[in-house]
Amino acid sequence: MQIEDYLSQYYQLDEIEEIIINIAKETKTPILSISKAKILSFLVKILKPKDCLEVGLGLGFSTYAILKELESNANLISIDKNFHRIDLFYEKIYKKFNKKLRRKLTVYPLDAFYTFEIFEKIDKKFDFIFIDSQKRDYYYFYDYLVNLTQKNSLILIDNITYNFQTFKKITERSEKYIEGIKLVEKFLKKISKSKKFKFTFFTNGDGMCCLIRL
Ligand SMILES: C[S@@+](CC[C@H](N)C(=O)[O-])C[C@H]1O[C@@H](n2cnc3c(N)ncnc32)[C@H](O)[C@@H]1O
């Protein structure tokens, strides 16, 4: 048992969290791990961001972690390109959200790149961004992330070792991940040299990267 799994037993989950975890198991849909969701909630609680963006709504486990701690005058835009997941979210999970949670959330059934282009055109800035989408895209997100943030904006990015693949020996890497791994490694190199962001890692699960815009 990993320390993360051991400690997770001490988290008290609420009804909505239990529902999402059960649906994720039934439908074999990936969601953010409990310990990562707790970090996400904590960051939102401490930072009190006003304009938040999430890339990768999925079943809304991370969405709920953000919304729970988001102040009533703040808002979260969550995007996902998978209509089936969005349907499932509205059918089974959104219904359980109270009015306060619903009021803070807008879901765009769109691709991240298309959405970023629109936000850039209208010069939209976010003070908090959470990313949990296709890992190979992270490298190509970089310039958008620079443009969609301002000083002190925080970005949290999940699966920064791409399901543990980036630190496996090249010979042990799974064939289907090879291209994606190269891109995640390129992204890591890019942020490590970046003059636009300060960064740190959280080592829960396969890791998260936390960036602060300079
Ligand atoms: C791991 S799931 C997200 C899980 C979610 N954060 C949760 O905790 O329930 C990843 C999601 O990202 C979405 N996604 C991947 N690439 C995307 C893109 N380029 N634009 C929008 N959504 C994307 C997928 O459709 C998928 O639903």
Describe the model.
With 214 residues, the protein is of the alpha/beta class. The chain has one domain: Vaccinia Virus protein VP39 (Rossmann fold, 3-Layer(aba) Sandwich). 44% of the residues lie in helices and 20% in strands. It has helices at residues 3-8, 15-27, 34-47, 61-69, 83-93, 99-104, 112-121, 138-147, 178-193, and strands at 51-55, 75-79, 105-108, 126-131, 149-158, 197-202, 208-213. It is globular, with a radius of gyration of 17 Å. The mean pLDDT is 95. It binds S-adenosylmethionine. S-adenosylmethionine (SAM) binds next to helix 4.
Radius of gyration equals: 17 Å
Strand content: 15-25%
Number of helices: 9
Question: What is the CATH H-level superfamily?
Answer: Vaccinia Virus protein VP39
The beta-strand count equals 7
Order of helices and strands: HHHEHEHHEHEHEHEE
Q: What strand line-up does the widest sheet have?
A: 3-2-1-4-5-7-6
Largest sheet: 7 strands, mixed
Ligands, deduplicated: S-adenosylmethionine
- Mean pLDDT comes to 95
CATH class identity: Alpha Beta
Q: Residue share in helices?
A: 40-55%
Low-confidence stretches: none
CATH topology: Rossmann fold
**Class from secondary-structure proportions:** alpha/beta
- End-to-end Cα distance, whole Å, is 38 Å
Dominant shape:
globular
CATH architecture: 3-Layer(aba) Sandwich
Instruction: Domain count, please report it.
Output: 1
